[in-house]
Amino acid sequence: MVKIGVLAIQGSFAEHIEVLSRINVPAIEVRTVEELNSVDGLIIPGGESTTIGKLMKYYGLDKEIIKRATLPSRSSKNERELGASALTIWGTCAGAILLAKQVAEPRPDILGLLDISITRNAYGPQIESFETTISIPKISKKKVGAVFIRAPKITRVGKGVEVLGVLKFGQYDEPVIVQYNNLLASTFHPELTNDTSVHEYFVSLTRTYAKK
Ligand code: GLN
What we know:
The termini are close together. The chain is an alpha/beta fold. It contains 6 helices and 14 strands. The longest helix is centred in the last third of the chain and has 14 residues, at 197-210. The protein has a single domain (4-211), classed as Rossmann fold. It is globular and about 45 Å long. Strand 12 (162-169) and strand 13 (172-180) form a beta hairpin. The strands form 4 sheets. It has a 7-stranded mixed beta sheet with strand order 2-1-3-6-14-13-12. Strands 7-8-11 form a 3-stranded mixed beta sheet. A two-stranded antiparallel ribbon has the order 4-5. It is 25% helix and 33% strand. It binds glutamine (GLN). Residues 46-49, 93-94, 97, 120-121, 149-150 line the site of glutamine.
């Protein structure tokens, strides 16, 4: 069985742990490099990306996360690539911002692992938060509950990044959950609904990349 860590610096980490315990998956709060190195998958929760990014760096977690999410590339000794037998990461909301390669200003300290561009607070202030359901065929036959709180918008997806679900916003289909190999990012919070399907998907993804 894989073990999941939830980055517990700030934000909705307790809610993720609670969902994981509901689906009987071992989960721990991660605040140190030692705790990080004991898990196969890591959830970076929603919250305040500036705070999470700053403290992640302060505790030396950023370098270790980047190292574990990537593998030395076969083509060059110094290059690293995402892939097999690596740490699987899911960033929700603020977590998605921290995973992104490009963030519009104001930019927090990011990991820059996932080739997407993202803009913070793109649906307006807290009062414009909303709840809806989203179709994510790869994850669930039913529509998945999604809560958007001061959510960011993914404005570009890089080559090979798979869009798993979109939000119909006016005339646009906006990507709200995307995946690249062992990296998953959602701009919404599934941990605030009763639906456990995205968590179950993340655990199965972690199993694939942990080779367990
Ligand atoms: N607005 C927050 C940020 O930019 C993200 C909000 C959230 O995680 N719910 O960090």
